[in-house]
Specification:
about 70% helix; 14 helices
C-alpha cells in the first residue's frame, strides 16, 4: 500500500511511515530555508535598528539645538515654545517611521503655533490678554499674512527632500523582512513533499540510511519545489537596486544630517523676518483679529538679537560618520545577496544533504 517509496525489493516502510516522512520533510524544508534566511534577516533587522537609532540621535541633536536657540536668543518665549518644538520633532520622527503624515503639515503646524508667541512676546511684548480666541485668530492669520516670509516654505522643501529617502528606506527595510518571512512559510505542494520524501527517505525503506541523494537529482527536486520562491529573483534584484538608490540619495545632495542641523537656523531667520516686519504685521493683525489689551505705557518691541551660532558642543560629526558607515556596510552586504533567490536551490543542496565525495548516491530509484 506504499504511495511514494514503491520498490521491487523488500521494504521496511509502511504507509503510516510515509505520512510521517512527509511531515518531516515539510518541517525540515521550513527549517533549512529559515537557516538560509537567518543571516540576511539578521542583517536587515540589525540595520533597521541601527538606522532608527542614528535618525533618533540626529533628531535629538537638532531638537536640542533648536531649543537652545530659543533659550539664548528668544528667552521671553522659550518656555512656551518648548511644546511646539517637541511636537515638530515628534512629527518628523513619526514621518520617517512611515506614519500617515507629511513634512509640510508638521512644519506649517509648528509655524502656526509659533506665530502667536512671536507676535505677543517679541513684536508686541505689551500684550497681556492672549485669549484662546485671539491666539486661534493669530494661528489662522499666519497662513494668510505669511509673517515668516519664504523661510517656512524653504524649510519644508529642504526637509521633504532629505527625509523622503530616509522614510522610503525605513519602509523598504520592513518590506524586505516581510518578503523573507513569507518565503519561509510558503506552502509545500503535494508533489513537492512526495518528491522530497522520495529523495531523502525512500532509501531508508531499504535499509540504506547512510546513502545520500546525488547532487544533480537534489538540484532538480529543489528547483521544482522552489520554483515559486525563485521567481522572486528579478524583483529581489530590483529591490536591492532600489535600496542602493535610496542610500545614495540619503548621502547625496538630500543630506539628512545637513537638513536637520540647519533647522535652527531656518527658524531663527524666520523669526528675525517677522520681527523686522513687525509694524506691518501688527497693522494687518489689528484689522483681522482686533486689538488685544496692552499694558499701560506700551512696552517697546523686544530688541532683535541675531544668533550667529548656537553652541557647537553637541556636534553632528559622530552621528553623521556613524550613519555613513552604516549605509556603506549595509549596501555592500545587500549587494552580495543580489542572487539570494536565484541560488536558493543550490544552497539547500549544499552541505550534508547530498553525497559529494563518494562514488555512490541515490538517484530516486536506486543506488548508482
Amino acid at each position: 500500500d506504499l504511495q511514494i517509496c514503491q520498490h521491487r525489493a523488500p521494504t521496511c516502510c509502511t504507509k503510516k511511515m510515509e505520512e510521517s516522512y512527509q511531515a518531516a520533510v515539510r518541517r525540515e524544508r521550513t527549517q533549512s530555508i529559515q537557516a538560509l534566511n537567518f543571516e540576511l534577516k539578521y542583517m536587515i533587522v540589525g540595520h533597521i535598528t541601527a538606522f532608527q537609532e542614528a535618525f533618533e540621535s540626529l533628531l535629538r541633536f537638532a531638537e536640542n539645538r533648536t531649543s537652545s536657540l530659543f533659550e539664548t536668543a528668544y528667552r521671553p518665549m522659550a518656555k512656551e515654545a518648548a511644546e511646539p518644538v517637541k511636537e515638530l520633532f515628534t512629527d518628523i520622527s513619526l514621518y520617517i517611521l512611515g506614519a500617515e503624515t507629511t513634512v509640510e503639515s508638521a512644519v506649517l503646524r509648528f509655524f502656526d503655533s509659533l506665530f502667536p508667541l512671536v507676535y505677543s512676546r517679541l513684536i508686541n511684548p505689551g500684550i497681556t490678554d492672549l485669549s484662546e480666541d485671539y491666539t486661534e485668530c493669530l494661528r489662522l492669520t499666519r497662513q494668510d499674512i505669511n509673517p515668516f516670509g519664504h523661510y517656512s516654505k524653504n524649510m519644508v522643501t529642504e526637509l521633504s527632500k532629505s527625509l523622503w529617502a530616509s522614510r522610503m528606506l525605513s519602509q523598504a527595510l520592513s518590506l524586505g523582512i516581510e518578503v523573507i518571512n513569507t518565503t519561509e512559510h510558503a506552502a509545500l505542494t503535494k508533489e513537492c513533499s512526495r518528491a522530497l520524501v522520495k529523495m531523502q527517505y525512500c532509501p531508508h525503506c531499504q535499509g540504506l540510511t547512510l546513502i545520500r541523494p546525488c547532487v544533480g537529482y537534489c538540484l532538480n527536486v529543489m528547483r521544482g519545489c522552489l520554483a515559486s520562491v525563485s521567481e522572486l529573483d528579478a524583483q529581489w534584484r530590483e529591490y536591492i537596486s532600489t535600496l542602493e538608490y535610496l542610500t545614495n540619495e540619503m548621502a547625496a545632495s538630500h543630506d539628512l544630517e545637513i537638513a536637520l542641523s540647519g533647522m535652527w537656523n531656518s527658524i531663527n531667520e524666520a523669526i528675525l523676518h517677522a520681527q523686522l516686519n513687525g509694524p506691518q504685521l501688527s497693522a494687518t493683525v489689528d484689522k483681522v483679529c482686533g486689538q488685544p489689551r496692552q499694558q499701560e505705557g506700551n512696552l517697546s518691541s523686544a530688541s532683535i538679537v541675531p544668533v550667529k551660532g548656537v553652541t557647537e558642543a553637541q556636534t553632528f560629526v559622530m552621528a553623521h560618520a556613524s550613519l555613513n558607515n552604516k549605509r556603506r556596510e549595509f549596501i555592500s552586504y545587500m549587494k552580495r545577496s543580489r542572487t539570494f533567490y536565484a541560488s536558493i536551490a543550490e544552497r539547500l543542496c549544499d552541505g550534508d544533504l547530498v553525497m559529494r565525495d563518494s562514488s555512490t548516491c541515490w538517484n530516486g530509484e536506486d543506488v548508482v
